Amino acid sequence: MIRLHSHSYEANILEERGGNCIRLAIDGIEALRTPDTLTDFDTENPYLYGMPLLYPPNRISDGWFTFQERKHLFPINEPAIGCFLHGELHRTPFQVIEQSSKYVQLQYQATTQQPYMTFPHAFTLTLAYRLNMDGLHQQATFTNDSKQDMPVALALHNIPTSFCS
Question: How far out from the chain centre does Cα 153 lie?
């Protein structure tokens, strides 16, 4: 786990879980829903904690969509309604590229040899977090490493603690 701190802010990032910022505190006040233990990620809904990256986001009906006349097919992981939901990026380990007490840059690379799920594109996702006196800043950068255009839509869940019971 990576711990960042600056001014009155603290953040915890799980590089082994998709670079999820699982904790953000301001003057000791929790701003995100944070798991009590790391095993909660394995035993409960992983979308509940922190700010998990979702790629591709939302529900994809029947597990497929067409982009530039090419069919992109994903496994049905929500069988009750026949959808593919949120991807696996939130479970994917990221590599730490650069780190300080206030900043971390992480990276995930999908290649033709090690693809991201059934996604037919090679790409690099760089994720950076920075804490400063204004708070937490997050930047996600997709680089298409394939020869064809690639569809990109990224989302994240952010459940403030004030909305949790």
Answer: 12
Q: Which residues contact 60 (CB under 8 A, 6 or more apart)?
A: 74, 83, 84, 85
Place of tokens 């920075």: 130
Look at strands 103-110 and 95-99 and give their pairing: antiparallel
Instruction: Decide which of 85 and 127 is more confident.
Output: 127
pLDDT in tens, 54-64: 999 889 999 99
Distance between CA atoms of 31 and 38, rounded to whole angstroms? 18
Backbone angles phi, psi at 143, to 5 degrees: -120, 120
pLDDT at 165: 36
Task: Quote the pLDDT of residue 143.
Answer: 97
Of 135, 56, 158, 139, nearest to 98 by C-alpha is 139
Question: Which residues, 6+ apart, have CB-to-CB distance to 144 below 8 Å?
Answer: 121, 122, 123, 150, 152
| d(C-alpha 122, C-alpha 3), whole Å | 30
Cα angle for residues 22, 25, 28 (degrees, 5° grid)? 135
pLDDT at 36: 81
